[in-house]
Amino acid sequence: QIRVGLNSGPVTAGVLRGEKSRFQLFGDTVNTAARMESTGMISKIQVSLSTATLLRQAGKSHWVAKREGQVEAKGKGSVQTFWVEPRGHTASSVGSTEPVDETDFQVMDEKTVRLVDWNVEIMTKLLKQVVNRREVWNKLSHRKTSMSHGPNHLQWPQTLPGRTVLDEVTEVIELPTFDARLSNEAGNFNDVTLDSSITTQLREYLMLIATMYRSNPFHCFEHASHVTMSVAKLLSRIIAPSDLAIKEGHEGGELASTLHDHTYGITSDPLTQFACIFSALIHDVDHQGVPNSQLVEEESHLVAAYKGKSLAEQNSVDLSWKLLMEDQFEDLRNIICATPSEMFRFRQLVVNAVMATDIMDKDLKSLRNQRWEIAFSEQGRLDESPEDLKNRKATIVIEHLIQASDVAHTMQHWHIYRKWNEKLFRELYQAYKDGRGATNPADFWYKGEMGFFDFYIIPLSKKLKECGVFGVSSDEYLSYALKNREEWENRGQEMVAGMLAMFEVPTNIITSGTTPPAVVTAPVQPRAEAETEALNESNSGINSEESENKLNNTQPLS
Fold first, then answer.
1. By the 8 A CB rule, do 53 and 106 touch?
2. Would you tell me which of 61, 415, 516, 555 could form a disulfide with 537, CB atoms 3.0–4.6 Å apart?
3. Mean pLDDT, residues 263-287 taken together
4. DSSP 178
5. Which of 123, 241, 173, 129 is nearest to 398 (CA)?
6. The pLDDT value given to residue 149
7. What span, in angstroms and rounded, lies between the C-alpha atoms of 526 and 501?
8. Are strands 4-6 and 45-47 parallel, antiparallel or unpaired?
9. Residue 146 parent element (H or E)
10. What pLDDT digit, counting tens, does each position of 139-160 carry?
11. Is the pLDDT of residue 470 over 70?
12. Do residues 357 and 553 touch, judged by C-beta distance below 8 A?
């Protein structure tokens, strides 16, 4: 009588030296396999999600049964596991099982793997900049060690009992003050070599984040990656002191200082940039494909956990943060933050950025508008020091950077906007059919989008321009927003009818109060024609994979 545990993934192999030299495997994959064995049952084969997914891809889904409940594995927390019983093998019926549903698996298809690889590349580049800056600072401060990897015994912040993630939102986040020496002494960050454990852990973390996204048409890992693309694009358009050849002497120092102040210190600090990218990637983890208001209506367990506010956003932060705190990502954590000040700044930036994506909460929206007025009004806060005012502006600009990226598809080429608009419609229409929405989205979609452009998208794109940080990108975003708004006004009703036809829904379900009678009675565009038109637009010379992004985690404003 034995119990067996299986896990699949990358390993490190080698021969240990000494009197008892032997070939051995190392790494988190091996550790997880051990956890599968230790939490298993006699005469049963227990496997991880990664192994179960591979079996499914091999056409062996009928071998796999989802274990009832989650398993508490040391160093892993609660994990979902599966029993494996190959055909022809009769194991003792121990424990409770249930049939495996397709949704139990998050198959890592080629596109998702490519997106993970792209995100790893972007985040690795920023981590190298973080390490480079840290090493320069250590050198200037005459410190002997650099906490690039290995234990540093930092107590990473967690949400305190009785408080929520939303309670942590702060009005002003303090970014590092300008130090010209860091610009003058900084070498080429590409010369920084990260320990292999760092890149391995980063990739493993992002792979797990990808599996934590549900298979929604809109709120999925592809969307998160496109939001990340927009954040990276906007950050790249900000001029940073290190981007210029800072000359030695007084003039060069003044130039770098001026640029630092102009960008409110955002691009002078690579950790801030990393936090923005990280936030974009995790901001919709475990999104259920319905608005927060629906979760409240359904009395989800998240309502009590988060006091009925920003349910999806707070849940995303908690799940992603909990994953980052696992033992297997210790080296990754240590290279992100080496000091308590870095650690708390990183947490504050992530919390503020992700919470800013809840645009439907009226109270939060009002508070953000007030903070913008305080930061960018002509008077400003007369009682604040220049440094505090700079940090205030940086905090609110970062939040608007994430918000703009979250709806970036509305401020890009028409065919990109059209694609993601259809995805969101599909998601909300499916929720409505499943009884998870009180209103058919077709009843408000046309006018809702018009209001969304007029009262959110266009004012937001204007704010990007007003803050004066993002250069030509702000002009580009505003221009596309205005063009898409005009195009939607002219073609939106036709598009709604086309989407309904594509989903094989009679057009007469559109109420006369939201759509002119002409649309109800007009011939519906055949599905084949709609697909052909979309294909022609996608081949018009614009690469939709470069920058297409999405709306928010809620339905359009009406």
1. yes
2. 415
3. 92
4. P
5. 173
6. 46
7. 7
8. parallel
9. none
10. 776 654 444 444 556 777 777 6
11. yes
12. yes
